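Lab intake sheet, docking and co-folding queue.

SAMPLE TYPE: protein with bound small molecule
LIGAND NAME: guanosine-5'-triphosphate
LIGAND FORMAT: SMILES
REQUESTED OUTPUT: full 3D complex as structure tokens
PRIORITY: normal
SUBMITTED BY: R.K., bench team

The fields below were copied directly from the construct record.
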Amino acid sequence: MDQEKIKKAVYDILIAIGEDPNREGLKDTPERIARMYEEIFSGINEDPLSVLNVEYHENTDEMVLIKDIPFYSICEHHLIPFIGRAHVAYLPKDGRVVGLSKIARVVDILSKKPQLQERLTSDIAKTIMKGLNPLGVAVVVEAEHLCMSMRGIKKPGHTTVTSALRGAFKASSSTRSEVLSLIFGRLI
Ligand SMILES: Nc1nc2c(ncn2[C@@H]2O[C@H](COP(=O)(O)OP(=O)(O)OP(=O)(O)O)[C@@H](O)[C@H]2O)c(=O)[nH]1
Ligand SMILES: [Zn+2]
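RESULT FIELD (auto-filled):
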């Protein structure tokens, strides 16, 4: 990431909005933002598949669901956050499972870039299908977009829900109902 270019751009934005980038409270802001971008956009150059290369074998073909994985991402239209939770389930094939934390790491890596919620959702599903080759993957993402809350239409408290179903979760209505009931805590 080009830290110097980010610093210069933030300095120019501060001038453009009518601020004084040299005043006490703002003088370190361009550098702080450059450091922050390094962190919150770290997923741009990271390969989420790299965390799925440690598999275990367990005699199971039952669903694994990790619910309520918190994430912070950035809306690519306005460069402000959308914040929420991801629920990720998979059906192991031939007993292939991964450490639970690896699923949360995939969500973390994929969330740290500018994007749309739909793309984040399908990228999580695509990565797990590719890295683990399970019988199916179900991803549900629930988020609040600050671009819809603090500006524009101004609807704080809304939730956008997106899903990506692959393999058995798409093909079988009973498997799909099972995962959605577990995610939403009621029979579906
Ligand atoms: N589908 C989708 N839309 C999003 C997402 N994040 C933000 N948006 C929408 O992107 C759209 C951008 O619309 P534009 O008309 O180009 O921009 P704008 O004038 O700032 O739009 P308003 O937010 O309606 O004021 C808005 O409707 C946002 O709500 C997302 O993750 N997925
Ligand atoms: Zn937005």
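REVIEWER NOTE: The chain has a mean pLDDT of 97.
SIGN-OFF: pending second check by T.M.
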